[in-house]
Amino acid sequence: MKNNDILFCRETVVNSLSQTMAYHILHSKNAVIDIENSFLSSIFFDVDINEITHQKTFFIEMSIEELSNLPLHQNACMIIFLNTQALSEQNHLDMLNDLRLQGFQLGIINPDPKVLSDDFLSIFSYVLFSLDSLPINTIIEHCSDSLLVHKNLWINKIETSDQFTLMKDGIPNAYFSGDFIKKTTLIKGKKVLNYKTILFDLLTELNNSDTSIQVLAACIERDPALTYRIIKLTHTSIYHSQFNVSTAQRAVEIIGIRDLIKWASLVMLASISGKPASLVSMAISRAFFCQNISEVLFPKSNGAFLVGLFSFLPSFFDEDLPTLLKELPLDENIKAALLEYSGNLGGVLKIVEAYEAGRWEKIPFKQLEYKGISKQTLKGLYVESFRHAREVSSL
């Protein structure tokens, strides 16, 4: 799928010889960021960050609140920079020490070594000074302080050749970035990758006998849009909920663990940008149609809804079905139905696809009548699937 969404910017960070040493990941000035989580989500779930940074170190600035909920990125060298003005030695010293012990590498922005203690500054292995906040002479003076001189230094917001020359002469071992370097790249990508990661994690947890509602809710809460829509689902006529649901955990309790993956998958596919609304409606209708038929023919079988919904995966992700299913820890019966039309669920999918295409000769009407599904009953199940699809399509 070609997706021109601008996820974030990649700014090159160089040494005094103008060699690329790291990348600064930051908001795009041209991108509309609805919520801060969308920026962090793009970095940690929507792209291969090692590919974007060519396996080099990357710098990212964030608030202390965001850092407290950030997953540790095991496969990339990430330095997180925190603004001095938002930090308190009294309130944050223990927390920052704990984060460093967990494996996070931390940097501090525009610190004054005459104000901050040695214990506090020792937490940070990197220091960032920004030329739009401090004059050059002050930065050079700070960098020569005994508390900072042995740290990794980074000077940002270099706008002119003269500034670059002064900074290289004054702090030759530092890193440098800014508009003068003119090496900023807009990173575009597929927002769907975030959903694929969450879907994979949900399926993994659902296959874990020790999983809990809290763990499943935490998976959902990684995406604010998914959280909102799952909560909204509890107010549909399907669940007749009279409760004022405000958390993903409460929504999971109402929906039930068994149905969670069904609805989470549906919501995520409906959230993918760049796809026509008609495609979403078709996928949802097929999912309900498969479920309706399966409930009559094979009442003890589970998974018909997912078989119908996931049969549309190639249309949403623009990849072939075997590749997509290889990545997902699905029940083997569901995979067999989707790839080979085998088993009870595969037979249901065959009937549904034939009915949708008007290939009546492919539908075993006699066998269906023996199971209690007449032509009129089948039509009724088909119409009912549209009714359900209309309701949940508005989520």
Which features does this protein show?
alpha/beta, 3 domains, nine-stranded mixed beta sheet, 20 helices, elongated
Strand count: 9
Which stretches are low in confidence, meaning pLDDT under 50 for 5 or more residues running?
Answer: 30-37
CATH superfamily of the largest domain: EAL domain
Radius of gyration equals 27 Å
Mean pLDDT: 81
Assign the CATH architecture of the largest domain: Alpha-Beta Barrel
Fold blueprint:
Elements: E1 6-14, E2 20-26, H1 36-46, H2 49-52, E3 57-61, H3 64-67, E4 78-83, H4 89-101, E5 105-109, H5 118-121, E6 126-130, H6 136-143, E7 152-156, H7 161-170, E8 175-176, E9 184-188, H8 192-206, H9 213-220, H10 224-233, H11 248-255, H12 257-271, H13 277-297, H14 304-310, H15 313-317, H16 321-326, H17 332-340, H18 343-357, H19 365-370, H20 375-393
Parallel strand pairs: 2-3, 3-4, 4-5, 5-6, 6-7, 7-8
Antiparallel strand pairs: 1-2, 1-9
Helix pairs in contact: 1-8, 8-9, 8-12, 9-11, 10-11, 10-12, 13-14, 13-18, 13-20, 14-17, 17-18
Kindly describe this structure:
This protein folds into 3 domains: 6-188, EAL domain (TIM Barrel, Alpha-Beta Barrel), CATH 3.20.20.450; 191-273, no CATH class; 275-395, no CATH class. The protein is built from 20 helices and 9 strands. The chain is elongated, with a radius of gyration of 27 Å. It has helices spanning 36-46, 49-52, 64-67, 89-101, 118-121, 136-143, 161-170, 192-206, 213-220, 224-233, 248-255, 257-271, 277-297, 304-310, 313-317, 321-326, 332-340, 343-357, 365-370, 375-393, and strands at 6-14, 20-26, 57-61, 78-83, 105-109, 126-130, 152-156, 175-176, 184-188. The longest helix has 21 residues, at 277-297. The protein has a 9-stranded mixed beta sheet. The chain is of the alpha/beta class and 395 residues long. α9 (213-220) packs across α11 (248-255) and α13 (277-297) packs across α18 (343-357). It comes from Marinomonas colpomeniae.
